[in-house]
Amino acid sequence: MTEPTIENLLREGRTFPPPEDFAARATIPDEGVYQQAEDDWQGWWVSHAERLRWLRPWDTVLEWDAPHAKWFTGGQLNVSDNCLDRHVDEGHGDQVAYHWEGEDGSRRTLTYRDLLEETCRFANALKSLGVGKGDRVAIYLPMIPELPVAMLACARIGAIHSVVFAGFSAQSLVDRIDDADAQVVITADGAYRKGNVIPLKANADTAMADTHRVRTCVVVRRTGEDVVLRDERDHWYHDVVEGQSTECPPEPMHAEDVLYILYTSGTTGKPKGIVHTTGGYLTQVAATHRMVFDLKPDTDVYWCAADIGWVTGHSYIVYGPLANRTTSVLYEGAPDHPARDRFWSIVEDYGVTILYTAPTAIRTFMKWGPDLPGAHDLSSLRLLGSVGEPINPEAWVWYHQYIGGGRCPVVDTWWQTETGAIMISPLPGITTLKPGSAMRPLPGIKAVVVDQAGDPVPPGGGGYLTLQRPWPSMLRTIWGDDDRYVSTYWSRFGNEVYFAGDGAKLDDDGHVWLLGRVDDVMNVSGHRISTTEVESALVDHHAVAEAAVTGRSDAMTGQAIAAFVSLKGDRQGDEALAAELREHVANRIGKIARPANILFTDDLPKTRSGKIMRRLLRDIAEGRELGDVTTLANADIVSQIQARSTAAAASE
Q1: Strands 521-524 and 383-386
Q2: Quick one: which of 74, 127, 497, 505 has the most CB atoms within 10 Å?
Q3: How confident is the model at residue 652 (pLDDT cuts 50, 70, 90)?
Q4: Which part of the chain is CATH 3.40.50.12780?
Q5: In the CATH scheme, what is the homologous superfamily, with its name and number, of domain 525-651?
């Protein structure tokens, strides 16, 4: 029996056309690009590859032996050369590459020439330590300039970097070192987070004691913590770069040589080492960064407020922006330290024109209220972006109104670690926006929403998001486990169809609305309802800042909807408000989506990348034993929610 597809329940009627002055100066001026790309989709990507500097031209655009793709085979280039040397050679060495601000208020400005010279020094230092082409290097650094320098230095000499988010534990570092067989670790003495110091070198020491692989460790001095340096293995960064030449010829790399490995978080099993290569990856991250963010490299100040430890940082803090000669802001710390207006003071101080952040952050800002951004001059902003998970329509509208002043288009982007670059997004100069919708696949991308049988759904239908054409920045395999690559991504609908693992719906105009992971779909009385839609209905209520819902077992309906709600400001929840919220959801979606119970909480459990851990909430709702929660960004909230859930169950 065929399982029913996801139902299309929530309706959103608001639209926002591009402002006339924005459209008049848009990087992408008209909708003809979609047909141009469709008429010759390989030629479309060639036109973007040709914007890069190649050391040797390619022989073949695409070799597709499903599910394995090779792009621009025979071609040679170097990513570091394209991100740095090319711009300096063209006379832009004095342009600022990064305005860096530390959580403690320290600041540095690096021009493209500065970044090139520092990269060359460190590349030469790595070579002097025996690092060469194909070697794997684990980078465990906070958001300091030495992090992109380390990545670019690896790319320059052909070493493969594996960045490990600085908030991860020693065990997470061990797992990634062992899987990649990394023999080099680059870390720091410590990292600042909300005024505290995270002992990175001590964590790295614990990790290196648990693996025999590491022969070299380079340590950046950031916080001044006392650290132990082991003879022969450990070296201070400032010692190894001192006296090194500011010239280091970039290693010619084949287009399909591996640029980096980035591990998924491992919330659903052993972390997967996602492999990205050189030519196709750089082509697509540069192209999408330029198109989606309407980039004006001579005037824009761009801030992607993510962490480089995630793919968003790889693609849209380092490689895409630098390839496009962008001036970026790089910020080390938390958005609420030392005060909750830190983001807005940064936007004001640096004259940020483009801001790209996560819905989790936006909902947090909503909770804190509009007075904080309202106290700062945000008039420099001209474009806003959202990344990481589906954005609730009400959060979109708040972002547009209170951060963008009602004048800034909002580009809601869908993509994954595996896709490498943005796949679905509005093009801001030509798209009439709908709050909460990523709108349509980018030119050259074939994204199709299908039903359980793999057949495309019509407008108004919901189902499973697939990609049905190779794209240049696609993952090439899972490091050391190609069988898992095939079974995880290319088996559900055949080996020519990539299944993203996400649910999606099409509205009546055929525009795409992401519904989150298909694991986050609830089956209530035979109706398959997305958690995203119920959460969006809850956040639509004026009192709600953030909400997460999950299904729990129910004898009558199969599953019932359990909602966890965080309120704006200091408001406290009670039974009257819970009843009001249930009716609000019923009116917004339908009675079938009304939560069976609502638990008010100060916060929601989140990963260190800001994603809500619905799996934990599901375990709490079911009264199951919880696993390890120490890697969460806010582990303390779990026990609070558990206690309130237990008390609520006892009172029923």
Answers
A1: unpaired
A2: 505
A3: low
A4: 20-504
A5: ANL, C-terminal domain (3.30.300.30)
Sign, CA torsion 337/338/339/345:
negative
Question: How many C-beta neighbours within 10 Å does residue 64 have?
Answer: 13
Give the integer Cα–Cα distance in Å for 652 and 642: 16
Q: How far is the C-alpha of 193 from the C-alpha of 222, rounded, in Å? A: 12
Secondary structure percentages of the chain, helix, strand, coil, to 5: 30, 25, 45
> Which candidate, 122, 117, 133, places its Cα nearest to that of 240?
122
**pLDDT surpasses 50 at 267:** no
Residue 329 structure tokens: 């802001």
- State the span(s) of the chain assigned CATH 3.30.300.30: 525-651
For residue 121, give the amino acid letter.
Answer: R
Interatomic CA distance for residues 606 and 112, integer angstroms: 36
The answer to whether 153 touches 192, Cβ cutoff 8 Å, is: no
User: CA-to-CA distance for 373 and 363, rounded, in angstroms?
Assistant: 13
* Residue count of the chain: 652
* φ, ψ dihedrals at 304, nearest 5°: -95, 105
User: pTM for the full model?
Assistant: 0.88
Contact 409, 18 (CB under 8 A): yes
Q: Which residue has the tokens 């192209």?
A: 287
Summarised one tens digit per residue, pLDDT across range 102-131 is 999 999 999 999 999 999 999 999 999 999
- How far apart are the C-alpha atoms of 577 and 600, rounded to whole Å? 10
Q: What whole-number distance in Å separates Cα of residue 218 and Cα of residue 210?
A: 18
List, in order, residues 6 or more apart from 280 with CB less than 8 Å away: 45, 69, 71, 72, 255, 256, 471, 472, 473, 474
Return the CATH number of 20-504, one of 3.40.50.12780, 3.40.309.10, 3.40.1650.10, 3.40.50.1980: 3.40.50.12780
Q: How far apart are CA 581 and CA 351, in angstroms?
A: 39
Rounded distance between C-alpha atoms, residue 308 and residue 417, angstroms: 12
pLDDT bracket for residue 643 (50, 70, 90): confident
Query: What pLDDT was estimated at residue 7?
Result: 63
Average pLDDT of the segment spanning 625-643: 74
- What's the alpha-carbon Rg for the chain, to the nearest Å? 24
